[in-house]
Design the sequence.
C-alpha cells in the first residue's frame, strides 16, 4: 500500500513515532484500527453469541496475561521477528 500526504505530516508522523518508539507503519495501523473500530458495523456472528454464558473455568483465565506485554505489543510483529531470526532473513 502506498499513501500520499504532505511532507510536513510525514515528518511529524516520523517524529511522533520515534518519540513513542514505534514505526510509522505501526502508528498508521493503530490509527486505522481505532477509526475502523469506532465505525465498525456489528458483526452478525458476535451478535449471535453476545448473550452466551462463559463458564467459570474460562472466566478464571481472564487477565492472567495482563501486564506481561505492553499495550502496543503486536503478536504478528513478534512472530515475524521470530521467523526472521530463525531463517536468517
Sequence:
Amino acid at each position: 500500500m502506498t499513501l500520499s500526504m504532505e511532507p510536513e505530516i510525514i515528518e511529524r508522523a516520523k517524529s511522533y513515532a520515534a518519540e513513542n518508539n514505534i514505526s510509522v507503519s505501526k502508528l498508521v495501523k493503530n490509527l486505522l484500527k481505532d477509526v475502523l473500530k469506532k465505525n465498525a458495523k456489528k458483526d452478525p456472528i458476535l451478535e449471535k453469541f453476545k448473550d452466551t454464558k462463559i463458564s467459570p473455568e474460562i472466566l478464571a483465565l481472564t487477565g492472567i496475561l495482563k501486564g506481561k506485554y505492553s499495550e502496543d505489543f503486536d503478536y504478528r510483529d513478534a512472530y515475524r521477528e521470530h521467523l526472521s531470526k530463525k531463517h536468517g532473513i
In short: Residues 24-39 form the longest helix (16 residues).
